[in-house]
Design brief:
With about 325 residues, this protein is mainly alpha-helical. It is built from 15 helices and two strands. The radius of gyration is 20 Å and the shape is globular. The N terminus is likely disordered. Bound molecules: zinc ion. The site of zinc ion (ZN) has 6 residues, from helix 5 and helix 10.
């Protein structure tokens, strides 16, 4: 009988998250970033905040449809080198392609370079006064900048699969923010103009990379501090039963991380707002109030989320 029950539970459980930062955190970051903007931009972004929040996760949903989407969300820096500063990886994308070739780059991820590319696309959308692209690219830029701030998006051990910690990816970036985000202060102050985007992006990336050891080690410490039978629990999510880290385990890990998740979210928020602002300034500060479409209905999220991610194994 008990085996039957275990089988049944197994049939109706699913990993708590297979998405970078989790849908919740990505949406929260984009939403909070709107409040960093100067007056000239705030009206337009506030009028479209529903779209910018909702579309924060489109980039992850594209991973179900496009093979080349996955590498845009991470970079396994430790494939190339292990010590900060990461000075053997070319910071310029064309130089990186010339040095390593496209196949290697796509196999190990391209997130810092892709952030720079999307920032340029957004600048172009501002120059062209292209309402829909401004909204979609702002949302996408928020997503990739968020991913860049997640330590486990910088390592080939992205789900603890090489250290016996499978599941830590979703634990850090989904479970913890979902449990503790209401205690976070995400008001970061005003967006700033970024003079050297390349430097800023790579230094955020290095911050993430330098936190990987702590992310892994502190999880081991939390596990040791808690008896095995209290590590996991089952929770009801809508009509599904989900196996997930217990509140006790989550609290122990969260305390050990000493506000790391909040710090990375705050840094994401300010960086997203600052890149939106920089793109707008670089485009010549167009008058966003003249974009008549800002009275349109929110842009709908159109991607199906069935099936599996294309590209490498899902982090769950
Ligand atoms: Zn992502």
């Amino acid at each position: 009988m008990s085996r039957f029950i275990i089988l049944l539970v197994g049939l109706f459980t699913y990993p708590i998250s297979a998405n970078s930062w989790g849908f919740f955190a990505h949406k929260t970051i984009n939403h909070a970033a709107v409040y960093t903007l100067p007056t000239e931009m705030f009206g337009f972004y506030k009028a479209n905040i529903a779209s910018i929040t909702e579309l924060a996760v489109q980039a992850d949903k594209r991973r179900y449809l496009l093979k080349d989407e996955a590498p845009r969300h991470y970079l396994d820096a430790d494939y190339y080198e292990s010590v900060i500063p990461l000075d053997t990886i070319p910071r310029n994308y064309d130089s990186a392609i010339a040095w390593y070739g496209t196949d290697t780059l796509m196999a190990h991820g391209i997130v810092p370079w892709h952030v720079m590319r999307v920032k340029w696309w957004l600048t172009k959308a501002f120059i062209e006064r292209d309402f829909t692209s401004i909204i979609k690219l702002s949302a996408d830029l928020g997503h990739y900048v968020g991913d860049l701030h997640v330590p486990l998006h910088t390592s080939h051990n992205y789900n603890g699969q090489y250290t016996g910690q499978r599941g830590i990816h979703g634990f850090w970036e989904s479970r913890l923010p979902e449990l503790f985000c209401d205690t976070y202060d995400l008001f970061t102050g005003k967006a700033v103009y970024i003079f050297n985007i390349e430097n800023t992006i790579w230094s955020k990336f290095e911050e993430s990379y330098s936190a990987v050891d702590s992310v892994l080690y502190l999880d081991k410490l939390s596990q040791d501090a808690i008896r095995d039978d209290h590590l996991y629990t089952f929770e009801q999510r809508g009509r599904q039963t989900v196996r997930t880290q217990s509140k006790k385990y989550s609290s122990a890990y969260h305390n050990g991380l000493n506000n790391m998740v909040e710090r990375r979210m705050r840094s994401s928020v300010l960086c997203v707002g600052s890149l939106w602002y920089t793109a707008w300034v670089d485009a010549g500060q167009p008058d966003l109030d003249l974009l008549t479409s800002n009275t349109l209905e929110p842009i709908k999220d159109s991607f199906p989320i069935n099936g599996k991610f294309l590209g490498r194994e899902e982090p769950n």
